[in-house]
Each structure stands twice: as C-alpha cells, then as structure tokens.
Specification:
Layout (H helix, E strand, L loop, with lengths): L7 E2 L2 E8 L2 E12 L5 H5 L7 E5 L4 H5 L3 H8 L3 E7 L7 H19 L5 E8 L2 E8 L2 E11 L18 H6 L5 E2 L6 E2 L1 H15 L3 E4 L12 H14 L6 E6 L13 H15 L16 E4 L1
Parallel strand pairs: 4-5, 4-11, 5-8, 11-12
Antiparallel strand pairs: 1-3, 2-3, 2-13, 3-12, 6-7, 7-8, 9-10, 12-13
Helix pairs in contact: 4-8, 6-7
C-alpha cells in the first residue's frame, strides 16, 4: 500500500485460523479510493466480487490460503489464481506440469465440478501466459507464469535453471528471469507490471497473497516472501476498491490447529486431490492442512 498517495488508505490487523496440526495466518489491508469516512460504504460493496490469489507454488493456496479459498470456490463466486513459479524443484516439464494438473484437480474438487479445463493463452504486457478455466465454471481461472522455483529454503535457484529465482530478481542480484518453458522473460519492473495488469484485467475486490511481512531467512520459503513482495508492489497501482490479504506459511506449523469440521474435511480432500500429481510432498506438509492464518 503506497504511503505516497494521500487518497489511498490502509489498515492492518492480524487474525489466525488453524486446523488440527497446521495453520494459516493472514495479514490484511483494506485499500480504497476516497475519504476515510467512505470505508464502510466501500467495504459493503465487496461481498460478491472476484477473489484473486497470487501464490508462489501450485500447492500454496490449498495449504496456506484455505479455508478462505474453499469458501470462495464453494460459493460459486469468481476466483482467479496466479501461480508465479513452476514449482519445478530443479526438475523438468514432466514434474512441474504435473503439479499444475494437481492444482487444477484440487480446485475442481473444491468447486464440486468435473476436472475438465479449457486451455488458452493470456497475452498481456507482451507475455504469453498459460491460462486454464474450468469447463463447467468459466469464472474459475488459473494463470501459470512458470518462473523457476528458487529452491528450499534459501531461494537462490537451482542448477537446472541457471540459479535464477524470484528472490534474486526482487533484491536486484538478477536482471531478469527466464521461464522454465523459455517462452517469457521478466525483469523486476515487468513482472510487477504484469501482475498489476492482471489485477486491472480481473478487477478483484479481494487480493490474497502470501507472507509480505516476513523476511528472507526467517525459516519460510524465499519464494513465498518474494512472490508476496511482488504482488504487494503490483497492488500499489491497483486503485479499485479492494481488500489485500496476506497469509503466513510455514510459520503456522508451530501454531495450534484452527481448521476443523467440514472445512477440514474439504481442505484435506483437496490436498489429496493435488498430492496424487506430486510425488514429492513430505508427510509434514499434511500438517499445513489443519491451519490457516491470515492477518487482517
């Protein structure tokens, strides 16, 4: 949220939701154009609008941003998700494309529709981005940018993709990132501008990102922080009335569970729908299903 614009207001508060053995924390800000006295009027209009999720990896919205995600999908409202990295773990297309398929299977499960998707190409800011929409519900859309994963936990990249990473792009030690499919390249400015253009295209009233309050080296995946930093930077230029939510990630493992009942069952089912396509999830990741923490 820009402090340079006097007409753009924000407020920040923290709230935690957890589930059995995992949690997700939310860091949220309300942003709107107009006087502070208009806040209630602005927020009252956000109840039925599109939610935009911006995440680093394909499993992140399922683990860290749900049950908010599952409530959005279950309600039938429009949901758009931007997945920044391929989550490649230094592997080839066979692996990262399977993770994409896993995310789509999980979303279909949460939306209660058949797992059939229509593939298109989103052409925006000179980039060609792989886009998929659920056949039975065209208002559920996923965009895959396919940037190289930074690697756990330092985020300095892998040898398979020339040690490129979001963290390096953000901190200026790398001039550009080339996607794993070699179709696009991004500088720090053009990645921020592309995310901002997607926001303008989608017109979300809720933007959900990962942990923008944490710092590199704090024990979380560097991609989570870097992706959130880019999303918040893009949010600076998005002036329509909306709420910005940020969710904590691995730090929630030390928090008590706060997701239970039907939400836990649905979240667990969606994660297992994803996990069928990803041979690498470790057992401990399951703990994340039981927690969700957002700051608001």
């Amino acid at each position: 949220m820009s402090t340079r614009s006097a007409h753009l207001r924000s407020r920040l508060r923290f709230q935690v939701w957890r589930t059995g053995s995992g949690a997700a924390v939310l860091l949220s800000r309300m942003s709107f154009t107009g006087r502070a006295s208009d806040l209630h009027q602005a927020t009252s209009k956000l109840t039925s609008a599109l939610s935009l999720y911006v995440v680093a990896h394909a499993d992140d919205p399922i683990l860290f941003q749900s049950p908010d995600l599952l409530h959005d999908l279950d309600s039938g409202q429009p949901v758009r998700t931007v997945v920044l990295t391929a989550g490649d773990a230094g592997r080839g297309k066979g692996y990262w494309s399977s993770r994409e398929a896993g995310l789509m299977a999980a979303y279909a499960k949460l939306a209660g529709v058949a797992n059939f998707w229509r593939a298109t190409t989103l052409r925006i800011n000179g980039h060609r981005i792989a886009e998929y929409a659920v056949t039975a519900r065209s208002n559920v859309v996923v965009d895959f940018l396919r940037l190289p994963e930074g690697g756990w936990p330092e985020g300095d990249g892998t040898s398979a993709y020339g040690y490129q990473s979001l963290k390096k792009l953000w901190n200026g030690s790398l001039a550009q990132l080339v996607t794993v499919d070699k179709l696009n390249s991004y500088t720090k400015d053009t990645l921020t501008a592309t995310l901002a253009a997607i926001m303008q295209l989608a017109r979300p009233t809720r933007i959900n990102v990962q942990d923008y309050a944490g710092t590199f080296g704090d024990g979380d995946h560097a991609d989570h922080h870097a992706g959130a930093y880019f999303a918040v930077a893009a949010n600076e230029s998005y002036r329509a009335a909306h709420i910005l939510h940020g969710y904590a990630d691995y730090v929630t493992a030390d928090m008590p569970p706060n997701v239970s009942g039907k939400d836990l069952a649905a979240k667990t089912a969606s994660f297992y729908a994803y996990a069928r396509f990803d041979p690498l999830p470790v057992a401990g990741v399951i703990d994340g299903v039981t927690r969700s923490v957002r700051a608001q």
